[in-house]
Design a protein that fits this description.
The chain is 68% helix and 4% strand. It is mainly alpha-helical.
Amino acid sequence: MAQTTLEKIHIPASIDELPKHPNIGFEKFVEAVGNGRLRPGTTLTQAQLCDFLDVSLSPLRESLVLLEEYGLIEVKQRSGITIINPELSFVRENYQFRILIEIEALRAFVANVPEGWLAAVRDRHKSVMATIDKGKRDMEAIEAFVALDQFVHSSFVTALGNKSILSTHNRLQQNIRMVRAMQGTTAYENNLLEAGREHLELFERIEAGDLEGASRCLRRHFESSIYRAVVFP
């Protein structure tokens, strides 16, 4: 029996299948924020955060340096560690870096789109978006879209054939994924649907071999993503 398009192109179905951050404490922090166990405004001691994230003190301290540098926590010597919402600069800088990488990567991708890729990602978008659009929060569908979103953008960067750039890009996507998870608003599903529609428009330009049009779509998509991240905190 012939394989279907979706069987040929493996698209991750959940965030569990996405690449992990090399810093285990940071990875677990992102996971805890993503599933709502850690909320902005929460204050914990180092010992409590060790227990919460199930990491020892040494790797936690390495994670705290990174988290504080990103503006995701505030460390006070006597009161403890407070989880805070990312600053606008954190969101903007991550997206700006992604734009630089992906606009160049798109050139390589459009020149050699993997067989079956467009059909597979279109089918998955329509399926997941239809579930999200039912109006009831479905975390499985939301995670499926987040995984699909990262797969799409990672596919562009993979076309460069540079593992170091891909690794950096994965971390940028993880940072942005965490910001989205911290939003926790009723607008979140609508934001995902808007992003999905922007993807579908981008796919049309890629299918037509229109590099300039695809690049414009990608830039508009990023501009809209920054707006959504800022306006719906």
